[in-house]
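Revision sheet: structure tokens.
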Amino acid sequence: MDDILRISLIALLLTFTLAAYFLVIGVLFNDRVTKTRNAIRQMPARAFWLGLVNLLFFGVIAFVLLSVAENAGAFVKGILTIPALVILAIITGLLSSGLTGMVGQLGEKLFPDLAAWKQNFWAAVILCVACALPFVGWFLLLPYVCFVGIGATILGFFQRNA
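Predicted:
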């Protein structure tokens, strides 16, 4: 019984921490997140496919580099690990911006009459809970949101300023 309560408390705290993270990213990188939200709003299918292709391509490259580095000598391990970590850091940055844009888009649609920070906070909580749903959330919703987020961030780099 203690384990269930402990896990539930940890999940609740992580959900609120992630919601706060999305709020901070949205404030610090407002222009980037706005462009990402515009890309999500205008072309979600293109963002999905672009995110899928890029995440799979660069994810496989990083995985192969880390796998080869595991069995290599010390010098080669350093040479192979650094590019893999750079690729993973770039993917993480794209994912942070993309998920923040997705949370903002969900907040606009779900809570149109709330303040912007409340929209983002509650949309992040709802998205976290929805992605925690066994099987459907894990294997359908979470990858979809990640692919659209990464693709929309990449598309946002090529948008003109209004």
